[in-house]
């Protein structure tokens, strides 16, 4: 097979972005070979740079979402700064923005305006709730959208709803923006035209809520909050082991229940007991089901429980911590870790999930310092060193 280049090699992306949704989308494009020019404010840049200092002095969100990009710090409120962005757009294939609703339009950087001026441009507007409707101008941060989309209502325990432990609304919007860009570029290859792409965080997370949404709309009630247990399958939960660990197991059908009872719990009589014999019965008698499984695993270490479950063909997993994930043997065995450069030095990072065998590995470029590429980009636009110095003196760039 001939060696394949990265699929987005030669594609230029300009992004006026902040926080997670747009930066995570454009990072996917950068990993696949696109050149991504990140427009930041001169006075601190993307505000995600200041979220924390956990990554050797850098913000963990920023490190995660911004590798492989060029940073130019420009004041968009100054006409000279806005002109720089418009000149960058003249040669761009993709533009992505997630400014507050209405801000891009006031600057003439909304997708409709840009696509009218640049017919081949793919321009993405990411918003919290969409451009129209009563929520259009409502502030939209990840946890707020998780609440509006009902995710928090189905997450947690019976007594306590909780948010997802990751920015699910931001990630959902980012991945639909990413796939929307790819679809629009594919269409451009056929028609020669780019066009607007509209992504809302609420729309994206509402799509991910498909199972509980359809369950309630067509079945009459929302799935109950059950912690790490499954709402309609039992046993499907985490159980404590003798060494203080926890093992999650999932019995998907009654044949598996029989194997669990006979080969793991050592209680073959449970296989035909009407209290446990069917999933409907086990779900109706969840407390009793969980009690017999917990009792059977309580005398085993976590590794012993995993070995016995796997020997019986029962799906199972360790209830890992974040540090366990960082040391996960499967990631190590598949050589999924790399190092990316940053202003704080090399940082460990995972390869992106998209693997394209027979081609170049994902381009995991450096995490940029604020304005690191400002001078080089202005020079490429034909702006003299004296002109750059004047812009910097006036606070238009950094």
Strand content: 5-15%
How far apart, in Å, are the first and last alpha carbons?
46 Å
Task: Give start-end ranges of low-pLDDT stretches.
Answer: none
Number of strands: 11
Q: What best-fitting shape do the alpha-carbon axes yield?
A: elongated
How confident overall, as mean pLDDT?
96
Going across the major beta sheet, what is the strand order? 3-2-1-4-5-6
Number of helices: 17
Give helix % range: 25-40%
Tell me the radius of gyration. 26 Å
What is the succession of H and E elements?
EHEHEHEHHEHHEHHEEHHHHEHHEEHH
How does the helix and strand content classify structurally?
Answer: alpha/beta
Could you describe the largest sheet, including whether it forms a barrel? 6 strands, parallel
Tell me about this structure.
- The protein has a six-stranded parallel β-sheet, with helices on both faces. A three-stranded antiparallel β-sheet has the order 7-8-9, with helices on one face. A two-stranded antiparallel sheet has the order 10-11.
- The relative contact order is 0.14.
- The mean pLDDT is 96.
- With 398 residues, the protein is α/β, with parallel strands linked by helices.
- It contains 17 helices and eleven strands.
- It is elongated and about 85 Å long.
- The two termini are 46 Å apart.
């Amino acid at each position: 097979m001939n060696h394949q280049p990265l699929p987005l090699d030669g594609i230029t992306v300009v992004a006026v972005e902040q926080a997670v949704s747009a930066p995570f989308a454009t990072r996917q494009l950068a990993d696949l070979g696109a050149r991504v020019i990140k427009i930041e404010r001169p006075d601190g840049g993307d505000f995600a740079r200041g979220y924390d200092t956990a990554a050797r002095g850098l913000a963990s969100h920023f490190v995660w979402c911004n590798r492989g990009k060029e940073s130019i710090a420009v004041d968009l409120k100054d006409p000279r700064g806005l002109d720089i962005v418009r000149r960058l757009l003249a040669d761009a294939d993709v533009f992505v923005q997630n400014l507050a609703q209405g801000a891009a339009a006031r600057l003439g950087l909304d997708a409709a305006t840009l696509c009218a001026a640049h017919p081949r441009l793919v321009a993405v507007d990411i918003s919290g709730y969409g451009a129209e409707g009563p929520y259009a101008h409502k502030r939209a941060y990840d946890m707020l959208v998780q609440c509006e989309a009902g995710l928090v209502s189905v997450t947690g325990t019976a007594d306590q709803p909780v948010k997802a432990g990751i920015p699910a609304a931001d990630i959902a919007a980012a991945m639909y923006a990413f796939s929307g860009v790819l679809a629009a570029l594919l269409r451009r290859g056929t028609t020669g035209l780019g066009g607007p792409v509209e992504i809302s965080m609420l729309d994206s997370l509402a799509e991910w809520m498909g199972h509980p949404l359809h369950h309630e709309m067509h079945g009459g009630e929302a799935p109950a909050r059950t912690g790490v247990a499954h709402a309609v399958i039992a046993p499907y939960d985490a159980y404590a082991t003798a060494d203080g660990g926890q093992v999650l197991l999932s019995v998907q059908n009654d044949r598996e229940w029989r194997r669990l009872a006979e080969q793991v719990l050592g209680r073959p009589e449970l296989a035909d007991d009407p209290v446990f014999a069917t999933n409907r019965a086990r779900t109706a008698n969840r407390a009793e089901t969980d009690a017999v499984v917990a009792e059977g695993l309580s005398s085993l270490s976590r590794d012993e429980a995993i070995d016995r479950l796997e020997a019986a063909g029962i799906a199972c997993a360790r209830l890992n911590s974040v540090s366990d994930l960082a040391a996960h043997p499967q990631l190590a065995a598949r050589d999924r870790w790399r190092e990316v450069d940053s202003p704080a030095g090399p940082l460990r990072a995972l390869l992106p999930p998209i693997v394209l065998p027979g081609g170049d590995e994902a381009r995991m470029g450096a995490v940029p310092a604020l304005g690191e590429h400002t001078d080089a980009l202005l020079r490429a636009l034909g702006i003299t060193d004296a002109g750059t110095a004047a812009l910097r003196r006036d606070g238009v760039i950094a």
